[in-house]
Write a structure and sequence with these properties.
This protein is an alpha/beta fold. It has helices at residues 13-23, 51-58, 81-93, 131-135; strands spanning 5-10, 36-41, 44-50, 73-77, 97-104, 110-115, 121-126. It contains 4 helices and 7 strands. The strands form 2 sheets. A 4-stranded mixed β-sheet has the order 4-7-6-5. The protein has a 3-stranded mixed β-sheet with strand order 1-3-2.
Length: 137
C-alpha cells in the first residue's frame, strides 16, 4: 500500500472551495455546489467531501468538531524562510484566520499556522532549503 492523498469532510463546500482556490491558490475546477472535489496538488491527491453526501453514501452519521480544531493539519512547504512570511501575509490578506504568526523553531524550521473557514489547521513551513534538498537529505 502507498499513501495516495487525503480528504477533508466539509460542511460548506462553497466556502471551502473559495478558500482553497482563492486564498491558497489550489486549482479547483468544480462548482461550489459540488459534492466532491478531487485535485492533485504537487503530486498528492487532495479531496473535499461534502459531509451530508458522504453520510448518505456510507449510511452512517459522524461527529464533527466545531470551531478551531487540532485533530489534523494540512502541511504546506515552501523553499525559504522568506517564503513562509510572504505566504502567511498573503493568506491573511486574502481572509485566512491567523493561528500562529511565522516564527523560528528550535529544530531549525520556520513555521506558521492559519485556519480554513471550518477551523482546520494549515501549517506553512520551511527548513530554508528546497523540498528536493530536504527529501534527499
Amino acid at each position: 500500500m502507498r499513501l495516495d492523498g487525503f480528504g477533508i469532510m466539509v460542511n460548506d463546500m462553497g466556502a471551502m472551495i473559495r478558500f482553497y482556490r482563492d486564498v491558497l491558490g489550489f486549482e479547483i475546477k468544480e462548482a461550489e455546489d459540488a459534492s466532491n472535489v478531487y485535485l492533485i496538488k504537487d503530486g498528492t491527491l487532495f479531496m473535499l467531501y461534502r459531509r451530508s453526501d458522504f453520510e448518505k453514501m456510507t449510511n452512517h452519521k459522524y461527529e464533527y468538531v466545531k470551531g478551531l480544531n487540532g485533530h489534523t493539519e494540512l502541511a504546506l512547504y515552501v523553499d525559504s524562510f522568506e517564503e513562509v512570511d510572504k505566504a502567511y501575509s498573503d493568506a491573511i490578506g486574502r481572509g485566512a484566520a491567523s493561528v500562529l504568526a511565522p516564527e523560528d523553531e528550535p529544530w531549525g524550521q520556520r513555521t506558521c499556522y492559519i485556519a480554513d473557514p471550518e477551523g482546520n489547521l494549515i501549517e506553512i513551513g520551511s527548513f530554508n532549503k528546497s523540498f528536493e534538498e530536504l527529501k534527499n537529505a
